[in-house]
């Protein structure tokens, strides 16, 4: 059973192992390792990139690519920075509008790819520019006033959440005690990942996403809903990216239409997907795996804070580690005995 | 920190931004202190020079004994990473964190955590839109005003009270870009002259600035004066390439710009150079230590604008004709005892090898 | 006779200016097994794709059980009980066998796919096609081609067809599986399911079908009941002319100098010490059940496999080529298994494909000599009689047989001494097959040597001067001249009794 | 045209892109007419200036096209360009341009090895190498003050003018002729198309696929490096981040020129026109003082709009 899973999810298994080693070592070296404070901090830092990595994964599974994920995240954050404040009702409405906007943007990407018949890479490169433009229109300068309580509640532990909103007797309820030290961002991230992705994976449309990545022609003649799946993939991508944007806005209580940051997020999302073991050609891999990939990416940079490394050598080391990490699986290339298998 | 009455410690160095600025005081601690510098991205000379200045200043005899540990990380333009690094240093028990914020907003959480743990957080250069932390900066609005005043003065001297001006702006959406531009336009509007201003976006980058300036000249013909927020060397390059007559120009403190002004001021390239100094980091560090020692500190510390116009340029003193163009010339702030010359430390090893 | 279950009238379809079907009238009846015959490119696959809702006809109308109708997509056809097994398989390599079997209509629970039920269902239909050895949880990617075809058949069965369409569904099957399919089809027929059956193997058609329709050049030529026409007549209908001898005559056995000597060739688990000698001007057949290492043998000799252990001499020069480019330099050529992904670059032009292997021959210092290229292409088209509008058209516009000729032409341009053919006639019609056999013999007479793997015993018997039979990665039998008989081949393939 | 030359008979993108260039110029001219009453955009001076600054992008795009044709991408262009310029000027003297090209060669080799031998997706390997190069340049600048002044040769190549035309234009033209020849008339060029169409078939046809892939990346690295040397000449110096503005426009130019992003199809003439289109579009938007927000939106819409027009053609013929 486990053997079969490992065989089918080799990349994912390697990613989990790599992450575990890196994360445990980091905590061992940290003066306050294995504490809630450190875990909360680590979790907060990883949410946005985690969501963007998830966003990237869905099109990649289909053999596509979404170069607009960073920009859609930025656009969503800017919308949230305007909308997410006021009464509880207004906050919820604002969050809903934010997610709806990002999701619609993804839907539009899907329409362009399916009915516009434009290669995904270039279509999303272009819509990414449009998203940044819109973000700049909404937020010409960084700022905004996202509800501060919400920011505090969502970027801390379950106890802080309960405490902030006076739930479960201010976090003191007995039933809550086993959970009080769990960081809310972790719950949000994995919760949304599992609640949204796992069921979708078990629908025909969701499975079609994999089928398209594997053999599009065969998927079509088998009567799978190709168009619907493609549109769904980009829509989900937009949804996950806007989750990232919404969280980013809440975390920073502001929005910032930063083009450079958007570009960096997009590129990092691809790196995270690869580190998670999803094939860029599509067909195999998964959203949760990319989440782990994103965590690896993050954990690498944690080390600069606890090790004494010349600050001007840090970018170089970061680059080398990234190269090394993505080359990790390359050893397999040399163990392939039939060279035709190299050309998938 | 608690809000206290002024005046603060060492007011010649830690000058309050304005008379009505409030003062902050932290409980005094005994050193030596653990200090971290959380930088944003590093892919340009200014930041590299800033990091080197910080490292050099941490070794300065004046403060060396007060620092137990000094760590520098660069997080890129990624806001969560920067916030995470700051929080991590708070968790690790650092006493002070100086930082160049990637965004003027969004630091509420780390400010709150820093306060809870009595950690002194000092944003500088790109400061925050908040008065809850102690910050160090030059007055960008004043910089813009001084630029415009200079250009108007030079034009007036040449008998011009109206004309066409070129404004080369910085990164769109950045507050520094906004403030500098506001300062410029404030003065232009107040002057009452009929100024037509052509704005182009140079991104504070020599290449972009050069390209957009060349385009602007090709399309608009001649300008009477130029105000460039950055990439000024590129702007002058474009001017010379296009055979544009030399006109009054206000710009940043790049060594290359100063070289060009020094060489061509007689031909009409009457320039003023005001810099955002990488040496700000040293003042931020010094301010952090002062705060940790329990001194009252102004919430917003104004570092005087390092101004040099074409009459004041002096080779080897405020520009270096034998050094590359990319360095930012102003680094020292004598009133603060900050005497680490940026170009000097940057040039160090090359001087050794030559 | 009852109303036809499917009836097409005046159906036409063209691709980028190529007429694939023209004014076709066609009808199929309930409970019958109906064969569709025709040369490569006759339009058979196009016809069934229209029936299955994959393609939309340009003109004409379709009636289902007498009512006019047309399917918007493959699913609509499936809903009407029309299930199709396509020539290019429709399995998803990265999904499991179970997922593939219930691909578009999986069992659900609470609206979500029920994995357990999926596996049970897969096990059940796999049992129906006697493929209990296939684990429903393996990825299709990891199955051999013949297993995949069986899974494809299982997938079709699992969808409860009322009309089952098989487009060359048996081309890669082993003899045992073919028998299983025969049994299945007759059982389905008894249950009132009608089948449309496309195959280039006449004996299959004769064994299975009760009605036959012949197509040629996109036109429906004739439909008749089994037995109404002789084989020769059918072939004449198909290719529009008389066919004489099926295989060119073999020369008398002579002693031949060896051009290729292989000793103890081993690779992974697939090859366990193959030894063979190929003589100059000889056609050496490779036989055996599918998957006994024949493909790997050819790939190994062509330098594709890593970690091969063997003593090899090509033209007396020792050493195994380490890459195809080096094999080519030593006058080897390989016509690979899958022409669509290995033999051709489908979206490039015919011309571009024809010179793909011979570029270095027509270039000096890396710069291509265009006049020599043009001459080479003209020669290739002429020698192989490739039927193409223009050599600048994409090779994908050619029918399967002509595509295979382009692959052959590509290699002939390198002037090879040793030509390895991996099942070159798979899915190719009789007329084209004959041409390929003729070309093979002609090449051998020119002094070239041919190593020829075929999954069809008849071809080995008809063509090869000598046959080696592989079993479990070893040569178990060598047959020469008159000893090459079906019985001997079958016995050797199963490695029974008197193995050599 | 020979039979091989008509590989991609898709002249449509070329014609459409060319038409759009005229539209851009017309819009820009209407703008300047309405604001200043002049038509500077139609003067040779302006157009030559655009071509001069466009030549850096054009040279990058020429190399990138080879990589895109094999179905890969080179994301390391920005810092290859920068590193070449910075190392070139640091070496200085007559060795400057060769040193810059050597940087490009090395980067191309490493990229090629990573993609062709280690089989790491180019999307990620070249991105990693870009990061490494940035790190190296930060370390180099931080280590000491490298000389950054352009050498006379760089200045001449980038800025001087020959017969009234900028020298950079001649360099671009030379690169263009070389790349166009390489693509259409050499075994290397034809192998690029074959690999981009189906690498497996190309390999089994006995093509040296590994070497060709490495060659494509080397070509891209060399072109980026040459562009870096020229750009250093144009700016009279090399500086951190000078290549940042080139990657996305180069990709856009190649694609707007009709090259298939997935490889196998495309003509060099298209890339040439794509570069001119992108350069003029940027310039006119800048002249119109378009705020960054609208500029991005227009930029994206133009790419999508044009590809939609190209695509509609497909639908009609099929
Ligand atoms: N041979 C083929 N291989 C791959 N894709 C094909 C093939 N033939 C057609 N297509 C494409 O597949 C798509 C049709 O998919 P399908 O009819 O399954 O859509 P759908 O998702 O079911 O749509 P809807 O949700 O509206 O029902 C079309 O875009 C068509 O161009
Ligand atoms: N997608 C396509 N694009 C262009 N031409 C096509 C396409 N599909 C089929 N054709 C052409 O239509 C004609 C009929 O093809 P079809 O596949 O129906 O033949 P077939 O009888 O099935 O041949 P085979 O026995 O080789 O499978 C051929 O000339 C073929 O080249
Ligand atoms: Mg449908
Ligand atoms: Mg067919």
Task: Name the features.
heterotetramer; A: 344 residues; mainly alpha; ABC transporter involved in vitamin B12 uptake, BtuC; 17 helices; 73% helix; D: 318 residues; 2 strands; disordered N terminus; disordered C terminus; binds adenosine-5'-triphosphate
Could you explain the architecture of this structure?
The complex is a heterotetramer of chains A (344), B (354), C (500) and D (318). Helix content of chain B is 38%, strand content 19%. Chain B is α/β, with parallel strands linked by helices and 354 residues long. Chain B has a six-stranded mixed β-sheet with strand order 10-9-11-12-13-16, with helices on both faces. In chain B, strands 5-4-6-7 form a four-stranded parallel β-sheet, sandwiched between helices. Chain B has a three-stranded antiparallel β-sheet with strand order 1-3-14. In chain B, helix 3 runs parallel beside helix 4 (108-116) and helix 5 packs parallel to helix 6 (175-191). Chain C is built from 17 helices and 24 strands. Chain C has two domains: 6-239, P-loop containing nucleotide triphosphate hydrolases (Rossmann fold), CATH 3.40.50; 258-499, P-loop containing nucleotide triphosphate hydrolases (Rossmann fold, 3-Layer(aba) Sandwich), CATH 3.40.50.300. Chain D has a single domain, classed as ABC transporter involved in vitamin B12 uptake, BtuC, CATH 1.10.3470. Chain D has a two-stranded antiparallel sheet with strand order 1-2. In chain D, a hairpin with a 2-residue loop joins strand 1 and strand 2. In chain D, helix 1 (12-35) packs parallel to helix 12. Chains in contact: A-B, A-C, A-D, B-D, C-D. At the A-D interface, helix 6, helix 14 and helix 16 of A face helix 5, helix 9, helix 11 and helix 13 of D. Bound molecules: adenosine-5'-triphosphate (ATP) (2 copies) and magnesium ion (2 copies). One adenosine-5'-triphosphate is lined by residues 15-16, 18, 20, 38, 40-46, 87, 396-401, 427, 429 of chain C.
């Amino acid at each position: 059973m486990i053997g079969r899973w490992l065989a089918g999810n080799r990349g994912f298994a390697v990613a989990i192992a790599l992450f575990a080693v890196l994360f445990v070592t980091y905590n061992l070296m940290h003066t306050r390792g294995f504490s809630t404070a450190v875990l909360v901090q680590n979790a907060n830092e990883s949410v946005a990139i985690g969501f963007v990595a998830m966003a990237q994964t869905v099109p990649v599974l289909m053999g596509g690519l979404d170069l607009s994920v960073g920009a859609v995240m930025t656009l969503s954050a800017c919308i949230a920075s305007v909308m997410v404040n006021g009464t509880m009702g207004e906050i919820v409405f604002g969050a809903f509008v934010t997610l709806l906007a990002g999701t619609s943007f993804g839907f539009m990407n899907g329409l362009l790819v399916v009915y516009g018949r434009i290669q995904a890479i270039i279509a999303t490169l272009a819509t990414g520019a449009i998203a940044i433009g819109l973000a700049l229109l909404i937020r010409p300068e960084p700022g905004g006033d996202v509800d501060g309580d919400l920011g505090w509640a969502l970027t801390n532990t379950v106890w802080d959440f309960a405490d902030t909103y006076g739930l479960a007797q201010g976090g003191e309820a007995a039933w809550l005690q086993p959970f009080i030290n769990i960081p809310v961002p972790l719950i949000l991230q994995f919760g949304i990942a599992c609640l949204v992705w796992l069921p979708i994976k078990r629908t025909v449309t969701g499975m079609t996403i994999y089928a398209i990545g594997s053999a599009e022609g065969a998927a079509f003649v088998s009567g799978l809903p190709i168009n619907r799946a493609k549109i769904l993939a980009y829509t989900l991508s937009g949804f996950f990216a806007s989750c990232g944007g919404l969280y980013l806005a809440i975390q920073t209580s502001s929005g910032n239409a930063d083009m450079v940051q958007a570009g960096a997020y997009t590129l990092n999302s691809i790196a995270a997907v690869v580190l998670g073991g999803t094939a860029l050609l599509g067909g195999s891999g998964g959203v949760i795996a990319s989440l782990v990939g994103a965590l690896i990416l993050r954990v690498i940079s944690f080390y600069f804070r606890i090790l004494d490394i010349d600050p001007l050598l840090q970018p170089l080391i970061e680059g080398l580690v990234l190269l090394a990490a993505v080359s990790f699986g390359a050893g397999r290339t040399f163990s392939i005995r039939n060279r035709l298998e190299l050309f998938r | 920190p608690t809000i206290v009455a002024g005046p603060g410690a060492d007011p010649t160095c830690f000058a309050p931004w304005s008379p009505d600025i409030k003062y902050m005081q932290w409980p005094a601690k005994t050193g030596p202190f653990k200090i971290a510098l959380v930088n944003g991205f590093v892919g340009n000379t200014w930041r590299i020079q800033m990091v080197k200045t910080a490292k050099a200043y941490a070794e300065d005899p004046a403060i060396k004994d007060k620092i137990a540990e000094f760590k520098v990380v660069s997080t890129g333009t990624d806001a969560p990473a920067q916030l995470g690094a700051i929080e991590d240093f708070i968790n690790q028990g650092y006493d002070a964190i100086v930082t160049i914020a990637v965004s003027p907003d969004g630091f509420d959480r780390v400010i709150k955590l820093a306060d809870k743990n009595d950690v002194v957080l000092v944003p500088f250069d790109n400061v925050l839109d908040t008065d809850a932390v102690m910050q160090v900066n030059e007055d960008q609005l004043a910089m813009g005003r001084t630029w415009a005043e200079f250009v108007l003065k030079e034009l007036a001297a040449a008998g011009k009270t109206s004309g066409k001006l070129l404004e080369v702006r910085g990164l769109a959406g950045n507050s520094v870009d906004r403030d500098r531009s506001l300062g410029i336009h404030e003065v232009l509007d107040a002057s009452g002259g009929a100024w037509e201003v052509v704005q182009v976006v140079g991104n504070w980058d020599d290449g972009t600035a050069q390209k957009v300036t060349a385009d602007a000249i090709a399309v608009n013909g001649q300008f009477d004066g130029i105000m460039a927020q950055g990439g000024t060397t590129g702007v002058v390059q474009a001017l010379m390439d296009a055979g544009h007559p030399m006109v009054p120009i206000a710009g940043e403190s790049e060594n290359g710009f100063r070289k060009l002004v020094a060489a061509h001021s007689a031909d009409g390239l009457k320039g003023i150079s005001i810099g955002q100094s990488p040496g700000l980091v040293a003042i931020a560090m010094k301010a952090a230590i002062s705060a940790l020692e329990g001194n009252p500190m102004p919430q917003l510390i104004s570092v005087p604008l390092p101004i040099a116009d074409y009459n004041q340029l002096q080779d080897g003193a405020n520009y270096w004709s034998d050094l590359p163009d990319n360095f930012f010339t102003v680094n020292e702030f004598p009133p603060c005892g900050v005497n680490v010359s940026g170009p000097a430390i940057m040039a160090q090893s090359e001087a050794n090898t030559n | 006779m009852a109303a036809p279950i499917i009836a097409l009238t005046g159906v036409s379809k063209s691709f980028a200016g190529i007429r694939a079907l023209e004014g076709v009238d066609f009808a199929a009846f309930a409970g019958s097994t109906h064969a569709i015959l025709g040369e490569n490119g006759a339009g058979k696959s196009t016809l069934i794709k229209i029936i299955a809702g994959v393609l939309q006809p340009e003109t004409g109308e379709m009636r289902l059980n007498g009512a006019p109708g047309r399917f918007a997509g493959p699913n609509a056809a499936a809903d009407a009980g029309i299930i199709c097994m396509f020539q290019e398989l429709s399995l998803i390599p990265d999904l499991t066998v179970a997922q593939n079997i219930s691909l578009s209509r999986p069992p659900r629970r609470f609206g979500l796919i029920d994995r357990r039920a999926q596996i049970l269902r897969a096990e059940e239909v796999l049992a129906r096609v006697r493929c209990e050895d296939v684990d429903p949880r393996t990825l299709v990617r990891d199955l051999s081609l013949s297993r995949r075809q069986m899974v494809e058949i299982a997938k079709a069965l699992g969808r409860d067809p009322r009309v089952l369409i098989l487009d060359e569904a048996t081309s890669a099957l082993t003899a045992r599986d073919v028998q299983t399919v025969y049994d299945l089809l007759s059982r389905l027929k008894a249950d009132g399911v009608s089948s449309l059956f496309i195959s280039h193997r006449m004996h299959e058609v004769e064994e299975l079908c009760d009605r036959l329709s012949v197509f040629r050049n996109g036109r429906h030529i004739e439909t008749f009941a089994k037995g109404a026409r002789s084989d020769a007549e059918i072939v004449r209908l198909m290719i529009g002319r008389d066919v004489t001898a099926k295989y060119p005559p073999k020369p008398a056995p002579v002693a031949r100098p060896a051009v290729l000597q292989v000793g103890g060739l081993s690779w992974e688990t697939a090859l366990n010490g193959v030894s063979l000698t190929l003589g100059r001007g000889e056609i050496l057949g490779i036989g055996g059940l599918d998957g006994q290492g024949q493909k790997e043998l050819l790939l190994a000799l062509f330098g594709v496999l890593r970690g091969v252990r063997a003593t090899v001499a090509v033209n007396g020069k020792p050493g195994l080529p380490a890459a195809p480019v080096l094999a080519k330099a030593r006058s080897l050529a390989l016509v690979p298994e899958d022409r669509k992904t290995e033999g051709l670059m489908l979206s490039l032009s015919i011309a571009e494909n024809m010179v793909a292997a011979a570029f270095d021959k027509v270039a000096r210092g890396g710069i291509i000599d265009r006049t020599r290229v043009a001459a080479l292409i003209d020669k290739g088209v002429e020698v192989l009689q490739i039927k193409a509008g223009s050599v600048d058209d994409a090779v994908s516009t050619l029918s399967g047989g002509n595509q295979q000729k382009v692959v052959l032409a590509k290699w002939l341009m390198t002037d090879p001494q040793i030509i390895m053919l991996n099942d070159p006639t798979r899915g190719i019609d009789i007329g084209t097959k004959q041409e390929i056999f003729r070309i093979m013999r002609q090449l051998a007479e020119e002094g070239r040597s041919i190593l020829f793997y075929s999954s069809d015993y008849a071809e080995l018997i008809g063509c090869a001067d000598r046959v080696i039979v592989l079993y479990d990665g070893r040569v178990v039998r060598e047959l020469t001249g008159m000893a090459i008989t079906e019985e001997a081949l079958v016995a050797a393939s199963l490695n029974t009794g008197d193995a050599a | 045209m020979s039979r091989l030359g008509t590989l991609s008979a898709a002249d449509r993108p070329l014609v459409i892109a060319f038409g759009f260039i005229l539209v851009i110029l017309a819009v820009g001219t209407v703008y300047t007419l309405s604001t200043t009453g002049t038509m500077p955009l139609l003067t040779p001076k302006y157009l030559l200036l655009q071509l001069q600054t466009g030549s850096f992008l054009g040279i990058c795009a020429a190399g990138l096209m080879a990589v895109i044709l094999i179905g890969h991408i080179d994301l390391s262009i920005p810092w290859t360009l920068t590193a070449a310029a910075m190392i070139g000027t640091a070496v200085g003297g007559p060795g400057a341009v060769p040193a810059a090209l050597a940087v490009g060669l090395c980067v191309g080799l490493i990229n090629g090895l990573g993609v062709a031998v280690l089989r790491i997706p180019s999307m990620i390997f070249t991105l990693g190498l870009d990061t490494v190069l940035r790190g190296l340049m930060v370390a180099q600048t931080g280590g000491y003050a490298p000389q950054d002044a352009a050498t006379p040769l760089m200045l001449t190549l980038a800025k001087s003018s020959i017969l009234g035309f900028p020298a950079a234009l001649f360099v671009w033209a030379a690169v263009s002729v070389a790349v166009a020849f390489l693509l259409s008339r050499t075994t290397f060029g034809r192998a690029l198309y074959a690999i981009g169409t189906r690498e497996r078939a190309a390999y089994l046809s006995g093509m040296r696929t590994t070497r060709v892939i490495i060659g494509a990346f080397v070509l891209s690295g060399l072109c980026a490096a040459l562009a870096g040397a020229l750009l250093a000449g144009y700016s009279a110096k090399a500086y951190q981040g000078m290549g940042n503005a080139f990657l996305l426009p180069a990709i856009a130019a190649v694609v707007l020129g009709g090259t298939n992003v997935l490889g196998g199809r495309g003509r060099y003439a298209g890339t040439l026109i794509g570069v001119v289109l992108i350069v003029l579009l940027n310039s006119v938007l800048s002249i119109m003082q378009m705020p960054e927000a609208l500029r991005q939106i227009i930029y994206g819409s133009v790419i999508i709009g044009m590809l939609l027009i190209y695509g509609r053609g497909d639908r009609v013929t099929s």
